[in-house]
């Protein structure tokens, strides 16, 4: 028979309220704390988290909804957040939606039934209206990477416009003017912002934004490869390409390899994320990097503030972080030369 | 006020036992099922999984312990298993131990307190004695990828010896005799088995197993890069290398790129796992592949049998699956030529 709180009370001579306060992390006098911990040790007492969840209406569990568990950007952030949460006694239940809005909705329902205390979500869906139920239940939701227009909650983003604008400007400075872009689905927040960044860079340099140079992929490796193929077929005069996410960067490189195109001699290339892959490639790739550790830290802080902070009415916050850029050897700095001969 | 089982009983005119049977997935007559579902809909009844966990002593939650969430091999398997489990109404709580035995032990404790119904673990530790508590509580444990000698439970492995033996034989057939290997930590099951495979191939071909050609890494990208550097420094006459896991394969390629060594002209290369990376590399890498989807399917079946099967005393099973091999362009098939000039 497992020891109960009553056994601890009997053993220590303390009241149930004191034992309960201790177990729920409340203030307990030092001498009582010592007594309780000795009794816990002696009686092999284990807190039944399930029972505790019923009494406190807190399960100390956080739901995490990701579009793909196989996306390095997601796992890097979640590994960090999970660590930080575990240090505070929170477990995480991770759901992978395979970028499917229907499955995302199911995951939200599933986590509601599990009575999670809060939710971290990188949304796949466009509107996320099914999150409203969660928010109206008074449970905090933190969005990662993507904003949802209809949903008012905390959000940690990166500055996607500047990230892409800066990267494309580097290509322009190297003399390129016919710069292709592989961009994500038109209904995903990051894809919209990154596309804006591309247009800003081109327009400010007085270059036309040409439709033939813009191809959409679905943020997967396969999608990146298919988009690269299309881009090359449509644009024999393209001298540089920017790929706007990690998986499509790998896919584009696979296709470039397949087609036998030489980087940077025949095509200059700037990718996105995945530093290790960029270093392993011949030549090393120039890439935009995202501050995954910092994102994780911000998500954790926002969530903990909502879960344990005092100001329950605090206005929702949006944190926007700066991206980085790693210089590789995939950009031909004399891009202008190759096509200037046309004139 | 949320609707309760009593409200459903009142609404339908059925007994509580029938309602309970329905909610727990038991057999209920068709006409009663229809009545119950209509009442659930009308009363907005939601099953409180926390409360249900207390009554049935089942939380319908499975714990998953991984050495690293950033290892593609792990996430590929877990994505699959999670899908299969979710279809059966099980949630998963994933813990990442950062390949640290102490953290692994803490994760086991944590999941025990969470009253998970079963555990899937890819062990980081040598002995895993802290799993005994779990097993003696009558909860099923399924090991992935690595056996633990002291622990008697279901286990899904790949045939690591044959995987490496076959790969090294390909290098020998191509004419190579001084074949380096980057192998994992000596206390990890897979590293031991893979090392045996290397020795078997070399010895059966009448080649000496030379210590200078064997360097250990820690199954990380950084470890693979450092091991590659050591191997090249110690063996100027080495003509081929086999790298024995996914992350070290990437690390070795980063280092080869850093050193400016040409594959396959100066060094033939066979790696492990990560098909996409192998395809993106110039030249495409030859690699051993692991059947992650099949592994996931087996883990799921073994676990479900223990959780819901009838034979509770069933002897523990070890499933061993075959690996694959993808031919790239990273092996110089005339390896013999390069060094035959010595004679």
UniProtKB/TrEMBL annotation, chains A, B:
InterPro entries: HTH_LacI (IPR000843), Lambda_DNA-bd_dom_sf (IPR010982), Peripla_BP/Lac1_sug-bd_dom (IPR001761), Peripla_BP_I (IPR028082)
PROSITE patterns from the UniProt entry: HTH_LACI_2
Sorted UniProt keywords: DNA-binding, Transcription, Transcription regulation
Pfam family, one: LacI
Residue ranges of domain HTH lacI-type in the record: 3-56
Gene3D superfamilies noted in UniProt: 3.40.50.2300, lambda repressor-like DNA-binding domains
CDD domains with a match to the protein in the record: HTH_LacI, PBP1_LacI_sugar_binding-like
Record-level Gene Ontology MF annotations: DNA-binding transcription factor activity; transcription cis-regulatory region binding
Statement: the UniProt record of this protein carries the keyword rRNA processing: no
UniProt cross-references to PANTHER family, sorted A to Z: HTH-TYPE TRANSCRIPTIONAL REGULATOR GALS, LACI-RELATED TRANSCRIPTIONAL REPRESSOR
Name assigned to this protein: LacI family transcriptional regulator
Species of the source: Muricomes intestini
């Amino acid at each position: 028979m497992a020891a109960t709180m009553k056994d601890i009370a009997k053993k220590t001579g303390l009241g149930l309220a004191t034992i309960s306060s201790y177990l729920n992390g409340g203030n307990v006098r030092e001498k009582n704390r010592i007594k309780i911990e000795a009794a816990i040790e002696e009686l092999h007492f284990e807190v039944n988290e399930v029972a505790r969840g019923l009494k406190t209406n807190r399960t100390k569990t956080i739901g995490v909804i990701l579009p793909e568990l196989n996306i390095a950007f997601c796992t890097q952030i979640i590994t960090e957040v999970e660590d930080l949460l575990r240090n505070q006694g929170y477990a995480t239940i991770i759901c992978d939606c395979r970028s499917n809005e229907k499955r995302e909705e199911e995951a939200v329902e599933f986590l509601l039934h599990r009575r999670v205390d809060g939710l971290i979500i990188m949304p796949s869906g466009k509107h996320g209206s099914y999150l409203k139920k969660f928010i109206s239940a008074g449970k905090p939701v933190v969005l990662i990477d993507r904003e949802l227009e209809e949903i008012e909650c905390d959000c940690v983003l990166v500055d996607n416009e500047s990230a892409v604008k800066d990267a494309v400007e580097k290509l322009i400075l190297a003399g390129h003017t016919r710069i292709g872009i592989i961009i994500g689905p038109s209904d995903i927040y990051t894809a919209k912002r990154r596309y804006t960044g591309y247009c800003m860079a081109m327009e400010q340099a007085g270059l036309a934004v040409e439709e033939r140079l813009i191809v959409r992929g679905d943020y997967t490796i396969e999608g990146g490869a298919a988009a690269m193929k299309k881009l090359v077929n449509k644009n024999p005069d393209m001298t540089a390409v920017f790929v706007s996410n990690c998986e499509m960067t790998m896919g584009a490189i696979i296709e470039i390899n397949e087609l036998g195109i030489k980087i940077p001699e025949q095509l200059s290339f700037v990718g996105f994320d995945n530093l290790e892959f960029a270093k392993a490639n011949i030549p090393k790739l120039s890439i935009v990097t995202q501050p995954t550790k910092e994102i994780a830290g911000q998500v954790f802080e926002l969530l903990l503030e909502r879960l344990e902070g005092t100001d329950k009415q605090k206005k929702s916050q949006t944190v926007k972080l700066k991206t980085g850029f790693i210089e590789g050897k995939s950009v031909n700095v004399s891009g202008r030369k190759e096509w200037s001969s046309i004139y």
